Structures are given as C-alpha cells and as structure tokens.
Amino acid sequence: MKFMKLGTRQDTFYTEEATRSLASEISSDLEIRINGITYLLHKQFALLPRCGLLQRLCSGTPEPTTVTMELHDIPGGEEAFELCAKYCYGITISLSAHNFVQAYCAAKFLRMTESVDQGNFVLKLEAFFNSCILEGWKDSIMALQTTVKLNEWSENLGIIRRCIDSIVDKILMPPAKVGSGRSDGHILTQDQGSTSTSNPSQKIGGQKTYQTST
Fold first, then answer.
1. Residue 204: CA atoms inside 13 Å, Cβ hemisphere, count?
2. What is the pTM of this model?
3. Rounded Cα gap, residues 104 and 102, in angstroms
4. Chain centre to alpha carbon of residue 27
5. pLDDT number for residue 173
6. Count of helix runs (H) and strand runs (E) in the chain
7. Are 123 and 108 in contact (CB under 8 A)?
8. Which three-class secondary structure state does DSSP give residue 2?
9. Is the dihedral of CA 79, 81, 82, 83 positive or negative?
C-alpha cells in the first residue's frame, strides 16, 4: 500500500474535555465546532490562507474578533477536518487509500483549491490519487470501499467512477502489466531520504510517496 506524507512539524494538538487546541504562543481567534468537538485555532496564521470557505465565512469580521462557526456538515466529520487543519499548520500527516476519500471530500468542502493558494491540499490529493492509488489493485479497491461512508460526495466528485474504471481496466489488462499495490519495501520517513529497498520513494507534486508490504 502506498502512503504520502505531508508536513514536517510535530503534532501539537491536545485535548481538554471536548476541546481540541494547538500548543502555540499565539492566541486562538477561530473557534470551529464539529459534532460536539470544539477546535480553537488561528485564522490568518494558518487556516484562512488555504481555505476558501473559511475566508468567505470570516469576511467582514473586524480584527481581532474571535470568529465562531459550526461545520457539522463537513464530509468525514472532525477526523477529516483535523487532517485538513494539520495540513494548514504544516503538521505531519500520512495519507493512504484508507483516509484519502475523507480527506479529499473535506478539502473540497473547505475549498482548499489552487484559486485560494498555489499547491494547495486538493491538488496534492488529486496527484496522489491519480499517480498512486489508482495504479494498484489493493489501493483502488480500498479507496472504493471507503466511499460507502461518503457515498454522495464520492459520487459527485467522481471518486467512485474513477475507482471502478481503474479496477475494470486492470481486469482487462494482462496480469503481468497490472500493479498490485504491493511492495517488498518498507515505509520511509522524509528524514531518511533514501533506502536500500528495491522500490524507492517517488515524488508527487513535490511530496514523497512511500510503499509498504502488507
């Protein structure tokens, strides 16, 4: 299975009761509530430069006012939102066929697109999907299975169709030419840079992708 790691900062999110905060010297000025969880975050410091939806919701708000909003309808819920938030903060996240769908749907919901910020989250996710997940049997099937929880979003964004097309193409392809999504290698970290594995990491949109055997 292939992985993509983004970000280099240590995860400094912590929980107090039902509140998720980020250890920072900068005071929070953005409160986001999702399904009983409250996030205390930062507007200009992290989220607004990359999230078109949050820019719109915060427009017209005088500084330094703390903005409170509810995003209960974000696809993937608080887990998917936190992946997007960590990306904005540069905190290390690991993406694979297991969590690609929820991350992609949430990023589209938050409008983390090229029109908002060059090299944004949606672009990196699409590159990973096209160049890695759809290349192998296992990753394509796993991604398709995870669309069950976000069926409508996955259908509208074309994820289901592309996964099915990929699987059908592999069924019709000679076995020797089909990638299994398996590897004799192991997971790397960005700090390692290189390894003796026969399946070195490759770069997707300036980011490294990794493989592991299963």
1. 24
2. 0.84
3. 6
4. 26
5. 78
6. 7, 9
7. no
8. strand
9. positive
Q: How far is residue 160 from each of residues 9, 138, 156, measured CA to CA in Å?
A: 33, 15, 9
The strands making up 202-204's β-sheet, listed across from edge to edge, are 93-95, 2-6, 207-211, 202-204
Report the phi/psi class of residue 158: left, alpha or beta, with left for phi > 0 and alpha for psi in -120 to 50: left
Task: Find where tokens 């997971």 sit.
Answer: 187
Q: Which residues pair with 33 in a beta bridge?
A: 38, 70
Please name the helix (run of DSSP H) or strand (run of DSSP E) that holds residue 38, with its range, or none. strand 37-41
Average pLDDT per block of 10 residues along the chain, 214 residues long: 94 94 90 96 91 92 84 97 97 97 98 96 97 94 97 98 95 69 37 32 51 45
Q: Which domains does the chain have, with CATH numbers?
A: 2-211 (3.30.710.10)
Q: Return d(Cα 39, Cα 85) in angstroms, integer.
A: 10
The pLDDT value given to residue 38: 97
Looking at the DSSP assignment, which residues form a beta bridge with residue 13?
22
Residue 37 token pair:
């969880």
Structure tokens at 184: 């004799």
Token representation of residue 45: 């410091």
3-class SS of residue 93 = strand
Radius of gyration for the chain, computed over Cα atoms and rounded to the nearest angstrom: 18
